[in-house]
Amino acid sequence: xxxxxxxxxxxxxxxxxxxxxxxxxxxxxxxxxxxxxxxxxxxxxxxxxxxxxxxxxxxxxxxxxxxxxxxxxxxxxxxxxxxxxxxxxxxxxxxxxxxxxxxxxxxxxxxxxxxxxxxxxxxxxxxxxxxxxxxxxxxxxxxxxxxxxxxxxxxxxxxxxxxxxxxxxxxxxxxxxxxxxxxxxxxxxxxxxxxxxxxxxxxxxxxxxxxxxxxxxxxxxxxxxxxxxxxxxxxxxxxxxxxxxxxxxxxxxxxxxxxxxxxxxxxxxxxxxxxxxxxxxxxxxxxxxxxxxxxxxxxxxxxxxxxxxxxxxxxxxxxxxxxxxxxxxxxxxxxxxxxxxxxxxxxxxxxxxxxxxxxxxxxxxxxxxxxxxxxxxxxxxxxxxxxxxxxxxxxxxx
Length: 398
Hints:
By secondary structure, the chain is an alpha+beta fold. The protein contains 15 helices and eleven strands.
């Protein structure tokens, strides 16, 4: 890892700390006995006070600069995919919002900090490139270094060797060999999305040969790396893949072009607050984990709505198909405050078939979640929600 990357990771992690940790720090720091002890120490040794004031000033400057850059870049607020009203015989689905792959929003610093921490802690378990996929991974890195400075000129600056991140202080040299780290890890540091590249082999199958899967929640790159597309889905027990989807998906992959991404969305319920890995289903390094190991019917405060907005596009030079996977992660108690959402989400979850219900772990949370959503829906109706006008008044992003 380069010095710039190593230094910036700690800065971004500090900027991305949760509010709860700051409150805990404040309570500890302003504890009266601690303050009296500190005052006594400063009276006897004034020099540490000057150092403390200097450090506070530096932290304040770094934080203010980061906020100004985020605002000047025009980063949008996080968006939640649109909950479509489910048909009588269909599962509830979520409409993909109109946003380009690789778009950033004002949660960028948190995502960047989480990714930097995961790269440092887990390395090749999360970021890996097969030798035969190296050129394709570098091609993706080149495209990001070309696109991001044009799209966000106050955050990124193009250089003769790659790109600088003006917010975090990272310098990306994509010309020097060997690269300072795996090209997929470098690419992952530049955007909020997880990234994967599939390459076609002589047998006509597409194989996962490059990836930076850092915030996936429920699956691990090390379990899927090197697998063909069909095995990735069957090993994950994706409902209906073998009977309904496999042949069509293979044909679809061959038709993907460089001149326009294909977009799709999925969604899950998660019963813990961890974006990177859902600890509720078990430790990330354990085998034999899944929804069947999760605690049943946790309190509603632990329920989160997790949606992935995926794009697929072919790299023009290498021919690889790039997945970008952007995760939106919101507490159920937050999105249930939006008009019509509780009733629509409850209807969607009840509409899942047996195979989808098993895949998404409904049995582990349905009692608490559906009771809460029904109560919120009835509360909205009692407060004057016009159910018959839902399609007329429902607006983006909900």
